[in-house]
From TrEMBL:
<keyword id="KW-0547">Nucleotide-binding</keyword>
<feature type="transmembrane region" description="Helical">
    <location>
        <begin position="71"/>
        <end position="90"/>
    </location>
</feature>
<keyword id="KW-0813">Transport</keyword>
<feature type="transmembrane region" description="Helical">
    <location>
        <begin position="348"/>
        <end position="366"/>
    </location>
</feature>
<keyword id="KW-0067">ATP-binding</keyword>
<feature type="transmembrane region" description="Helical">
    <location>
        <begin position="102"/>
        <end position="121"/>
    </location>
</feature>
<feature type="region of interest" description="Disordered">
    <location>
        <begin position="475"/>
        <end position="556"/>
    </location>
</feature>
<feature type="transmembrane region" description="Helical">
    <location>
        <begin position="267"/>
        <end position="286"/>
    </location>
</feature>
<keyword id="KW-1133">Transmembrane helix</keyword>
<dbReference type="Pfam" id="PF03219">
    <property type="entry name" value="TLC"/>
</dbReference>
<dbReference type="GO" id="GO:0005471">
    <property type="term" value="F:ATP:ADP antiporter activity"/>
</dbReference>
<dbReference type="InterPro" id="IPR036259">
    <property type="entry name" value="MFS_trans_sf"/>
</dbReference>
<feature type="transmembrane region" description="Helical">
    <location>
        <begin position="313"/>
        <end position="336"/>
    </location>
</feature>
<feature type="transmembrane region" description="Helical">
    <location>
        <begin position="203"/>
        <end position="224"/>
    </location>
</feature>
<keyword id="KW-0472">Membrane</keyword>
<feature type="transmembrane region" description="Helical">
    <location>
        <begin position="38"/>
        <end position="55"/>
    </location>
</feature>
<dbReference type="GO" id="GO:0016020">
    <property type="term" value="C:membrane"/>
</dbReference>
Length: 556
């Protein structure tokens, strides 16, 4: 166990300084050694998100120049098919390779792909120098699909890895800091594109995106060398000895559709989907409402001057992005961890959907641009800085298969499906701003109210799972040790190996296990990499890095 700063009975112990006290107030008693681990993970996500937003800023201009601006909607449709196919490939790789090596495979693939595309964009014949747009020029299509698929797969892989290597108590302290790293990347990436696109050129900026992927791979490699990984991630999900391997060594339930199967089987997994994605329905509705009102406002302010109206509209959207990312960064850095630790996950889960209900009702009561602007800032900023870390923590009492396979389906297709549902509403009332606010707002309120109920259910279910030590999807995960079981003797480990919720996952018939005895040394938890769960009293601390790394050393 790690002692608290300034603790101990010796009279010569120095009291913590002002900075240490402020850090503890914001993030809890996070040991100094673990701070390095959190900073390392934040840096890894910084390269993923920063590279993605840099490339995303280039995505549409490249298609417009090479293929034609009118083909951007078709590129979106093609990218859906490509991403769908790559999800199957990704889930197959989960059955074949250890989880940390997927970063090398996926990151290496995209680093190589973006590097090749960068070189081709600089070519005078097939690249951007050839300004004759033609839909038969495949480079634009490949670039668009590569960026879209990268943003979907790599972020899901990163959070699945983090959720599997950090316990709940550590997550409450660390996830805000990790997301702050992502927010820095989301601000810096587009800023680099806006600042240097006219000086060093789009092709070289694309090369910086490839470099970001290579640096992400290097960060993960260094992380595994320095801190190690849990045994559950050092084995592939399928095959002999892997997750789902039965006594005969044959895979049990492993396969590319296993994540979808677990999603359909367990209400808890569907609840994670709801809290992760369904709020995007109302975000899509309010986002379109804001753009309709903004266009009308600037057209009225600059009558007959389409150029001035368009320029001010673009400046308005740029200001919206700056404010949203700024608030999200500030809250994730200074507020996320403190709020979750003070309120607890159960009450914090209720905060965001309740906020959604309030802002939608405010828009319906005062349907003005200023109101919708503030509503969208609130939803976007706090979805990044508050809802995202909470929904990631919900994966704590789940199996490795749920963390990786089900999560890939939820993250990659859930948000897209929710945006599509929101677009159905906006298309139905696109001819009238008044109807859009009235009926679209009504639909958004219904979704938000449903999410309040889901958040209440998921908070109660999470606490029940935390106390019992049950693992959602554990029956499918077979032989791998799970990451949420309370500390106990060897008999508890045997129960872990035997599976988790099984058919009891829907709520009834929970199998109760012994809770952690306050006098235990915690050696077993340290041997398992410090990723075991704890009771609701927060009795589990993060394992010291020096000890956990030695017990989790694997081939990188």
């Amino acid at each position: 166990m790690v002692g608290r700063a300034g603790g101990g009975g010796g009279g010569g112990a120095r009291p913590p300084g002002a900075l240490e006290r402020a850090f503890t107030q914001l993030y809890g008693d996070l040991p100094a050694a673990e701070r390095l681990r959190v900073a390392w993970l934040a840096g890894t996500l910084f390269f993923i998100i920063g590279g993605y937003w840099l490339l995303r800023s280039l995505k549409d201009p490249i298609v417009a120049t090479i293929v034609g601006v009118e083909y951007i909607p078709r590129c979106k449709m093609v990218s859906l098919v490509v991403v769908f196919a790559l999800v199957f490939v990704y889930n197959k790789l989960l059955d074949v390779f250890p989880k940390h090596r997927l970063f090398y495979i996926v990151g290496g693939f995209y680093a190589l792909a973006f590097g090749v595309i960068s070189a081709l964009l600089a070519d005078p014949v097939v690249g951007l120098a050839n300004t004759k747009a033609d839909p038969t020029r495949l480079l634009g299509w490949v670039s668009y699909c590569a960026i879209e698929s990268f943003g979907s797969i790599c972020v899901s892989l990163f959070w699945a890895f983090v959720n599997s290597t950090m316990n709940f108590e550590g997550a409450k302290s660390a996830y805000g800091l990790i997301i702050a790293g992502a927010q820095v990347g989301s601000i810096l990436g587009p800023s680099i594109a806006a600042t240097y696109a006219t000086t060093i050129g789009v092709a070289r900026l694309y090369g910086l995106g490839a470099l970001a992927m290579a640096l992400m791979v290097a960060m993960v490699w260094g992380y595994v060398r320095r801190f190690g990984v849990p045994a559950s991630l050092a084995k592939p999900a399928g095959g002999a000895g892997g997750a789902g391997a039965g006594a005969d060594g044959k895979g049990k339930g492993a396969g590319v559709l296993e994540g979808f199967h677990l999603f359909m089987r367990y209400a808890y997994v569907r609840g994670i989907f709801a809290l992760s994605c369904l709020f995007m329905v109302e975000v899509t509705i309010l986002d379109y409402t804001m753009k309709v009102l903004a266009k009308g406002t600037f057209d009225a302010r600059y009558p007959g001057d389409a150029t001035a109206s368009s320029q001010h509209f673009a400046a308005f959207m740029g200001f919206f992005g700056q404010v949203t990312n700024g608030i999200s960064f500030a809250f994730s850095l200074l507020g996320t961890s403190m709020v979750i630790r003070r309120l607890g996950l159960r009450r914090t889960l209720l905060a965001f959907p309740s906020l959604c209900v309030c802002v939608v009702l405010a828009v319906m009561a005062a349907p003005r641009l200023e109101t919708v602007f503030l509503a969208m800032i609130t939803l976007k900023a706090f979805s990044y800085s508050l809802n995202n870390p909470c929904k990631e923590m919900l994966y704590a009492p789940t199996s490795t298969a749920v963390k990786f396979k089900s999560k890939s389906w939820i993250d990659i297709f859930g948000a897209r499906g929710a945006k599509a549902a929101g677009s159905v509403v906006t298309n139905a009332f696109a001819d009238s701003a008044a109807h859009l606010v009235r009926y679209g707002g009504g639909a958004a309120v219904c979704v938000s109210a449903f999410l309040v109920w889901v958040a209440h259910y998921m908070g109660a279910r999470f606490e029940a799972l935390q106390e019992s030590g049950e693992i959602v999807g554990g029956a499918e995960d077979g032989a791998l040790p799970q990451t949420f079981a309370p500390l106990g003797d060897a008999s508890d480990d045997e129960d872990d190996d035997g599976g988790g919720l099984g058919s009891d996952a829907e709520g009834g018939g929970e199998r109760r296990r012994r809770r952690r005895d306050g006098g235990e040394s915690g050696d077993e938890d340290e041997e398992r990499g410090g990723v075991g769960g704890g009771g609701s009293d927060g009795g589990v601390e993060m394992t010291p890095v020096a000890e956990s790394a030695a017990s989790r050393r694997v081939d990188v």
